[in-house]
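G., the chain you wanted modeled:
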Amino acid sequence: QVQLVESGGGLVQPGGSLRLSCAASGRTFSNLNVGWFRQAPGKEREFVAAINWSGGRTNYADSVKGRFTSSRDNAKNTVYLQMNSLKPEDTAVYYCAARNAVRTSTASSEYPYWGQGTQVTVSS
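Predicted structure as tokens:
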């Protein structure tokens, strides 16, 4: 069993930055994989980024490549999503999710553990 608590959302101006944190607790495994997803009102949930816990391999959606970076701190059992050059279309509730697998995945259905979500609003 894995529990996830995420934080770091808020209101930011276009072009600004935010860093989201996802802290994992409970029983974790060396092959734990963490994904980031977002969902805007009236929109379907979409993949943002993924990182594997032990190796640090990452995967990004085309819409955020070059702007978002995922990283991990194993000592703190925490993964991060650094979001730069934010745009109004990035406004959404952001979720971290986890699964016991080595390979990263873009499919939300493959992640059984989910955080509570944190609101990111990009507006002038």
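The two ends are 41 Å apart (CA to CA).

Shout if anything looks off.
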